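Intended use. Records such as the ABC-2 type transport system ATP-binding protein entry shown here are meant for training and evaluating sequence-to-structure methods. They are not intended to support clinical decisions.
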Amino acid sequence: MLEVFELTKRFKNKEAVKGINFYMEKGEIVGLLGPNGAGKSTTISMISSLVLPTTGDVRLRNESVLKKPEKIRKVLGVVPQDIALYMDLTARENLEFFGRIHKIKKNDLKKRIEEVLEIIGLKDREKDLVKTFSGGMKRRLNIGVALLHEPELIIMDEPTVGIDPQSRNYILETVKRLNEEKQITVLYTSHYMEEVEYLCDRIYIMDHGEVIASGTKDEIKSILSQEQTLVIQVEILKGEFLKGLEALPNIKNISVNDPILKIIVPKKVNILNEIFVLAGETNTNISSVQIETPTLEDVFLHLTGRQLRD
């Protein structure tokens, strides 16, 4: 349905996106992951026809949309990372306003607003001002705006940031339902790995403007098929213990969420004895040790060397 070919974007002396390629089949939910500054937002802006690429092309059903952006705008809905609503209007008034921008006929718009309010679960709050809404309700209304013109493709840029767990679950279930029932294709970015695990059929990982890995969840995880993750909890994390771990030759990556450390090591290497010796030398008390199969987040850390939120 959508293809990106050798897409590049330069801003003065900085190359934000470096000749990336990816595709999306109709009916897929595709995850686009990367730490801040990886080039995700610039890529989304180019796909959405808001920013022209320096080189490369974006094709919708094998037709370039760069010269005729209306091709993609007719079928594309965008849920931006920042709330894009009018706070002094009601939920219904916001939907009416954006519906007119899409040039939806009056009778069709009235019907469509009713359908969208049901989908996002805000029918009972349609006459309330948006400024009185919780963060989760604003996010849901943002999604409603993107759904008004019945798009075939939706880009969702971190749609669950800063909201309560109940609203977050509602949004995830809504995305899943729209995809399954209406075959809406979704490009989904998130800072929450469990969301990507739950929703996405395939994943692209970006860093420094490049796609550094792609595939299904299982294919991505297989990158670390020869590794295992040690989850170590200490009573007090001491700097000399951490420095000692970093100096051990067989450790691939260490992530710290004090007092828990996640360490990626080769499966065939028994490093526990060295870790316990180091703990004794640095007077570090280890509370527990668990051995786990690497997760999607472990792979991300291995590939980028950074936490997703960095």
